[in-house]
Amino acid sequence: MVQKIDLYMSCPVSRTGCIKYENPGYWEHADCGGRMYIDTDTDMGCYRCNYWSNWKNWSFACSRHPLRYEHMDDRDFLKNLGLTVNLYPANSNDKAVLKKILEKLVVSLF
Ligand SMILES: [Zn+2]
Ligand SMILES: [Zn+2]
Fold first, then answer.
1. Which domain holds residue 52?
2. How far apart (Å, rounded) are the C-alpha atoms in residues 9 and 24?
């Protein structure tokens, strides 16, 4: 069964300097404004319009580069997402799902 969690992380685009700003937040799909998720198939998608694609296909814009959608470095993405593990309560289901996703992301790097 595929499990989803809300995508919650700081901007993973290091070429704009964003990775230095540890300021995690939720992400919105540019096309419709819906909340984004990441799932245990390592796909990212939008709850509202149901569009989804592999995590490596997405690009990101944030308040530092609002009109520039940039591809992230895969390792920066992993690092930023990994930092949010500690923000979940130890016994939360979301934390367990996020750990599962991180393990699959690591595998998909190689
Ligand atoms: Zn959408
Ligand atoms: Zn950014």
1. 4-109
2. 4
Q: Which residue has the tokens 């699959």?
A: 104
Among the bound ligands, the one closest to the CA of 72: 2
DSSP class per residue in 42-60: SEEEETTT--EEEGGG-EE
Find the ligand nearest to 47 CA. Answer: 1
Domain count, the chain: 1
Among left, alpha and beta (phi > 0; psi -120 to 50; other), residue 39 is beta
pTM summary value: 0.93
User: Which residues, 6 or more positions from 90, have their beta carbon under 8 angstroms from its beta carbon?
Assistant: none
Instruction: Give the residues of the chain that fall short of pLDDT 70.
Output: none
Measured from the alpha carbon of residue 19, the closest ligand is 2
Q: How many CB atoms lie within 10 A of CB 43?
A: 17
